[in-house]
Amino acid sequence: MNLRLLTALAMAALLAGCASSPAPRYYSLDLAALPPATTGTVPVVLIAPASLPDALDRPQMISRHGYEVRISDQHRWAEPLRRSIPRVLANEIGGLLNSARVVAGTELPDADYRVRIDVQRLDVLSGSSVEIDILWRIEGQGSSRAGRSTLQEPVAGSGIPAQVEAQRRGLASVAAEIATQIRSLPASSR
Questions:
Q1: Which listed CATH number (3.40.50.10610, 3.40.50.300, 3.40.30.10, 3.40.50.2300) goes with 2-184?
Q2: Per-residue pLDDT at 30
Q3: How many other β-carbons are positioned within 10 Å of the β-carbon of residue 15?
Q4: For 161-170, what is each residue's pLDDT tens digit?
């Protein structure tokens, strides 16, 4: 009888421990803004899915503290970063080019330019800043440009939402560099 009672108490304690775990919170890099209205002749641009280091290619959010990488099970991305980063870049580049014809995806047959993204770093450093290092390549219209955007964006405020906002601002800066290069490439012959 004592063994049954101990087993029942152990199971109740285990279930109580599981029930008290906080539910994960989900975050998104984009603000779900509508693309701009297209005016005039604008290029059609495809932003391909991003390649990421294995440490970033996970649903949990990570932060770096020196050589230590902390993985948070309570703070997660709402979708894979390899898909959300290109969408954020597409929205930002579309706004800068005044075009609704900048999209994230795998195929766009009439694209004038294709942009490939290779994320080297998108790190929150000890909660105080975000370090971004992205290699990018624009191909199309018989020419190509490659570049590297490296920057550090301060986290304004505390907590995960402030860190996500710093990552988003950093991606907006990367998008501005890419948009500048797209503008300098030969215009579409269509």
A1: 3.40.50.10610
A2: 84
A3: 10
A4: 999 999 999 9
